[in-house]
Amino acid sequence: MFQIRLNDELKKHIEELKRDNPSSTELDDILETDSISMVTLIKLYGEHWEGYIPLSQLLKPLDFQFKPKRVARLDYKPEFKEYLERLKIQQQEKDYQRLISTNTELDAYRDEEGSVTLAQMNLWFQFHLHFGTGREVQAGWLFIIEYS
């Protein structure tokens, strides 16, 4: 997540430890990255500096070093990116076909000839508006409101 960037005081003490322990790869990594994890700092403090140097003195000034966030899709191979693009296009085509196909909710409403389309319902409303009692039109508008 984050580490503590080495300040001058902390770096000086870690370099002293490195002189005493030249084979320590952990100290090499700390000096190379110029930062130390909290766990490692607490361990080193407990083993070498506790009672000798106050922890607050080692940490002044305190500066955090955050690990860079991984950028999604940055390490994808070109072939995989092409595959993802093809999948995206296929999904868009399926969505489009579903959009332009007959509305499945309206398929449940059929007459003797098959599915009732919106155009047929419109004709029915126009006919009953001019020649009907008005009840049919009210029922039709209620149908449209409920199923829109």
TrEMBL record:
Biological process (GO), any one: vacuolar proton-transporting V-type ATPase complex assembly
Name this polypeptide is given: Vacuolar ATPase assembly integral membrane protein
